[in-house]
């Protein structure tokens, strides 16, 4: 899942991004409304964590523009304005969820993952295919009931493959969903990660390479 965090308090923004990355999510950060619109114009996000009180372009206006463009991401507003009227106003302009500061990070994670499931075709809480099971909430993976220890990036790649439900996923799509905007598009990181993931999942192999197209589980 790819997330955009939009928050002008840089320490808070970077802390949120770091926490989300620890949950195996790919995260980009914008520190003002103009930067948020710029990144949304070139990247496809599943969820946008959007502060309301932003410089350059107010968070409300960012939300309105994205909704008007029918941008596919789900939007959760993160703001210090937590009164009922504020929440109603935020939801009325197109936000999908609203979380007032201060907040528990575990709740933010749960809300982001819930919105991510709604951003695409509905998926079950635990993804299963070919004897592989992956629980995003608990960050647990098993093959035929045997626990498999994965790195955060291996976990993210496997989650993308399982979410594809048997369709082919290109290297470009994996870079888009499992990494962030700082990754070199010409890197061999996808191939290397796929090699270590296959090794950890064991035999017989369950991840198929489709020459010239991508990967399929």
From TrEMBL:
Q: Which Pfam families match?
A: Response_reg (PF00072), Trans_reg_C (PF00486)
**PTM-bearing positions, type 4-aspartylphosphate:** 51
Where is the Response regulatory domain positioned along the sequence? Answer: 2-116
Question: Which CDD domains does the record match to this protein?
Answer: REC_OmpR_CusR-like (cd19935), trans_reg_C (cd00383)
Name its GO BP terms in alphabetical order: regulation of DNA-templated transcription
Alphabetical UniProt keywords = DNA-binding, Phosphoprotein
**Molecular function terms, GO-annotated:** phosphorelay response regulator activity; transcription cis-regulatory region binding
Which superkingdom does the taxonomy of this entry point to?
Answer: Bacteria
State if Phosphoprotein is listed as a keyword: yes
What's in the GO CC field? cytosol; protein-DNA complex
DNA-binding residues: 124-217
Q: Which InterPro entries match?
A: CheY-like_superfamily, OmpR/PhoB-type_DNA-bd, Sig_transdc_resp-reg_receiver, WalR-like, WH-like_DNA-bd_sf
Residues in OmpR/PhoB-type domain copies: 124-217
- The protein depicted here goes by the name Response regulator transcription factor
Q: What does UniProt list as this organism's lineage? A: Bacteria, Bacillati, Actinomycetota, Actinomycetes, Streptosporangiales
């Amino acid at each position: 899942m790819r997330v955009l965090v939009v928050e002008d308090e840089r320490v808070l923004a970077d802390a949120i991004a770091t926490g989300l990355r620890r949950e195996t999510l790919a995260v980009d950060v914008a520190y003002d409304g103009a930067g948020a619109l710029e990144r949304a114009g070139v990247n496809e996000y599943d969820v946008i964590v959007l502060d309301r009180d932003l410089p350059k372009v107010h968070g409300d206006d960012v939300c309105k523009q994205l909704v008007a463009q029918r941008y596919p991401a789900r939007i959760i507003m993160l703001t210090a304005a937590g009164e009922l009227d504020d929440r109603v106003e935020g939801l009325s302009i197109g936000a999908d969820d609203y979380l007032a500061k201060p907040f528990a990070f575990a709740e933010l994670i749960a809300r982001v993952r819930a919105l991510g499931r709604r951003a695409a075709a509905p998926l079950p809480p635990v993804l299963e295919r070919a004897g592989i099971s992956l629980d995003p909430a608990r960050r647990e993976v098993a093959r035929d009931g045997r626990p498999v220890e994965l790195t955060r990036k291996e976990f993210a790649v496997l989650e993308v493959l399982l979410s594809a439900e048997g369709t082919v996923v290109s290297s470009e799509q994996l870079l888009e969903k499992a990494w962030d905007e700082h990754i070199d598009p010409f890197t061999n990181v996808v191939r290397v990660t796929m090699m270590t993931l296959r090794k950890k999942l064991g035999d017989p192999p369950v991840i198929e390479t489709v020459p010239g197209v991508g990967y399929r589980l």
